[in-house]
Structure formats: structure tokens, C-alpha cells
Amino acid sequence: MNAHTSLPENPAARAERRDTLWNPDAAACWSLLLTPLFGTYLIIRNWEALGEPGRAVRACWWFALSLVMLILNFYYSLLCSESSPIRMSNVIFLLVWYIAEASPQERFIRERLGTDYARQSWAVALPCALVLFIAYVVGYVRLLALITQVH
């Protein structure tokens, strides 16, 4: 069954439907700042809109892994004396994520739709992601200040 029950199931009707998609390359670029969590969420939504539930599930696993990496990075940076927010493991993870998840979707869309597809507006996604990112940074800084005071 389709995740969106109101959507038609047959291929002809699906071809007539014009789903809006986020540009996967732009999502990957924004992930440089907003972490792969952001890009993976958009990739999941794209796979769902493209009628590819198996690929959407695979992207969900990348989302979970990205969340684990973010949490580990958060705690690691609080517990270690090293204060660099950018570690080689983060860069390697971002590169592997791009090669394994973002790039295949970009190729899929380019091969199936070319550049002629309805584009999803960034007007909601980017502000929401920026608010979450700022909340993460503020929370991190406050927690770091609290730990510094205790020690």
C-alpha cells in the first residue's frame, strides 16, 4: 500500500501526477551546514514522492545513522579536551553519505525526469532546519558552559 493512501496506484496515473521534489544536490549542499540529517530527511521525502518505498526505507536507516553520529559527536566533543567541532570522522561520514545516498538519488532523478520536474520550495524546510540547528548550537554551548563551571 502506498504511504499516501489518496495517491493513485497504477503507473499511468502516477506518471500523470507531478510531485514536487527537493533538488537532491541542493539538499546535499545544505547538509554541509545542517548535517546529513537535513539532507536525508529530504531524500526520504523525495523517494516517497517518487514511489520508491524501498529506497525511502534505506534512507531512513541513513537518517538513524546520522542521528547517532550527531549524538556521538555531541558527547565526544563535551567529554574531550579537543574543541574542534569539525573532526575527520564527520567529514568522512558526510562523504560516505553523499556517495551512498544523495548521489544515487540525484542520478535517479536526472535519468528519470531530467531537469524538468516540479521543485519543492525551500521556504519552510530551510527556516525549520536553521531553527533546529541554532537550538542545537545554543544547547551545546550552554551545556559546555555548565560542564566548564562544574570542573
How would you describe the overall organization of this protein?
The chain is mainly α and 151 residues long. It has 5 helices and no strands. Helix 2 (24-49) packs across helix 3 (53-79) and helix 2 crosses helix 4 (88-113).
Question: How many beta-strand elements?
Answer: 0
Share in β-strands: under 5%
What separation lies between the terminal Cα atoms? Answer: 55 Å
Low-confidence stretches: 1-8, 11-17
- The pLDDT mean sits at 83
Structural class: mainly alpha
Largest sheet: none
Helix content class:
over 70%
Describe the protein's topology.
Layout: H1 11-16, H2 24-49, H3 53-79, H4 88-113, H5 125-150
Helix pairs in contact: 2-3, 2-4, 3-4
Could you name the key traits of this structure?
151 residues, mainly alpha, 5 helices
Quick take:
With 151 residues, the protein is mainly α. The protein has five helices and no strands.
